[in-house]
Amino acid sequence: MYTFKPVTERIERMRDKVRDRTIIADAEKARLKLEASQKYRNYPPMLEKPYVSHHVISNMPIEIREDEYFAGDLGNKSWGAANGTYWLMADIENTWPIGEDGLHHAPDDDPLYSHQKLAISPADLKELRDIFKQQMAAYGNVMPEEWLPDGAMDFFNLQASDYGKVGGFPTMLPPGHLTPGFQNILKRGYADIRKQAQNWLDDHEGNVQGDNMGKYIFYKAATVACDGAITMTRRYADCAREKAKTALTAEKKAEFEKMAEGLDWIAEKPARTFWEACQQVMMYNLFLKVDNDPGVTSIGRFDYYTWPYLQADLEAGRITMDEAQELVDAFFLKINTLYGGGFGKMQQTAGIGHLGQHTTIGGLVPETGEDATNPVSYMVLEAMSRLELHEPTVSLRTNKNTPKEIWDCAMATSMRVGGLPLLQNDEVIVPAIIRELGFTLEDARNFAFIGCQEITGSGCDYPAPNGSSMSHSGIYWAIALNMALNNGINPMNGAQVPEKLRSGYLTDMRSMDEVRAAFEKITTWMLTWSATLNNYTEHEYPRIFPFPNLSISTTGCMESGKDVSEGGAKYNSYGGTATGLATTADSLTALKYMIFDKKLVSGKEYLDAILADWEGYEMLRQKILNEVPHYGNADPYADAEMKYVVDLYYNISRDFSTHRCDVYKCGTFGASDHVVQGEITWATPDGRKAGTPIADASSPAQGRDVNGPTSVFVSSTSFDHSRFMDGMALNLRIHPTALRGNDGITKLEDATKAYFDMGGMEVQYNIVDSATLRKAQAKPEEYHNLVVRIAGFSAYFVDMTPAMQEDIISRAEHSI
């Protein structure tokens, strides 16, 4: 059994401050951004973005708080919310009470906020409202819905994708989901990157010909971006020096002075020590987020790129292993301070506290292919486990030579923080990245994860794995099937597909071939429309959301003189995901079994039952639930339908492309979107009732897997995981008693390795029983730190909405 180290008192204090903080929004950065936007609004967009960032960074509040090991935050009060955070759209003025501190506070009994401590002053709220009005008056919606590609409203009105309503077009969301080039920043420093850009400008001053003007503007933007990063780091160095002057002890004074000296160094130069490496990563991460956030970004292979600095420190006697662990603890606590709150669908789908800053450990050495596990790998798991953190998500990349001890540490961590780490199989993923995405062997070995499960290159890739507008490049498959059976009509809202796509009703279909033909016609049309709308945003993003702040670290951009949004990265792709395909697959299995193979019910009666939401047809529903085979039980009859659905998804997507690339990646994950999708999906042929969750990610439908985890693994590998380079998620819930003692842990490790040998790509475990979850619902104050895995993220169970809690409880509880 793996034994964890104790936590220091200082880290414990920090942990309590982070976990129990109130997130206070303010108007200061919004005011600075408005000032800068007005000043630079007539600059080329590529230059406007870094100049606006530089203005905000140069003037935003700077603070280093007591007990912090690393400088840097988002420039808000009390680790507060960014000015663009979603919960500011709520009706705060009329529904949030004002507390004794004079701030509006989110109501404790409002399920929209799920135990979040959010607050804002009336004055800041009034100013933010005014700023937002000014911004909209000056700029409007950057891509208004007054114009859409012809026929788009037919797709919108179905409400069968995230493009599901007028006003829902995601034009204000930045594209992204990527891993920044932290290694490039660590190895080069900003001064060297700036010099590269300035040299090109000097060589072309007064003589810019052909298509070089785009490069000229890009390299000028790169110099401004580097200046912004340098300015931000130096401001924190100055703050540390000021703190040293008023420090209450000599020890604290020396600590602040050392911090200032280190910040001054990394402001321009490459990191020298482990602390400097961690601080430089954190500072660049914050630099990207402060104003010009390129969507969701990961921390990448933290253990791989920081280990050389720790190794050098250890050899020089500058640090001990316990001191290094304390720094890793502080680093991951610091990441948790970046969360700015959420409400409504955003918090349901993305989760409370979820930032998408996925951290990857383990894996391979790019140059040699040797196992890359090192002491920092263990430190990351130690930090997550001992501090009971659910963010950032951590993936452990495994291979044939992954040490037994890191497996043990991973399992012990899963027992303490549900679903972490995610277990990923390099033996499947690395060859697939080369085949599907065109990476070199070295770059493939260096891949990392982002967001929920998305696979990205490390600082060399602009992958847009959820499409250009975050989570909008996909469709709702269960709705598509319902429409195929119902002459193209969505039973939830009555909207109907264009006439050319209508194939009649299930009542008149005489074979599964007819069912499949109707289904394929609609899904092909829907997926193609989804990709088309993505390409509309792709076309506009170079002028709306260029990212020179990101491009300075991305391999390929500085070499080509092109921003990531224009295809400057070494590798380019985009993609989407399909949540809950098991619901669709089980529905097809049920139709095949009940109507066409066993002839137990007519197509008319079956369709009537679905349209009635099974009211009056409970006997038929129970027969479907209890007699029809279901995906997840190693039954080839059911598994064949899952293979059919995922293969259909993959094959349709082969024809998609954008101006940046011709690589579209499929995924089978989805944060907690299976709950949100379920709310707007009518009853389905598998016996599921309207409004209830569909299956999560690529997992079996809730409670339908009854033959144990090995059977789930057999079913899962009925299709080729290596095709799904956007990532996949397989959730399993294991009863804690199954892992008592080393024997139980070894069995689960061996079962996981056997699954990986069969071609499995990923799995994640919730090791918690239903009784504990019910107790947590009844007495949340006693289970404050209970972490569970939803699908693409983990969360504190007591912070989840009731629907999400019930979804976790409804999943099958396995032994081994």
UniProtKB/TrEMBL annotation:
GO CC aspect terms: cytosol
Keyword hit for Lyase: yes
Record keywords, A-Z: Lyase, Organic radical
GO MF, any single term: lyase activity
Gene3D superfamilies, sorted: 3.20.70.20
PROSITE patterns per UniProt: GLY_RADICAL_2, PFL
Sites bearing Glycine radical, chain numbering: G792
Top-level taxon in the UniProt lineage: Bacteria
Domain Glycine radical: 696-816
Protein name, UniProt field: Formate C-acetyltransferase
Organism: Alkalibacter rhizosphaerae
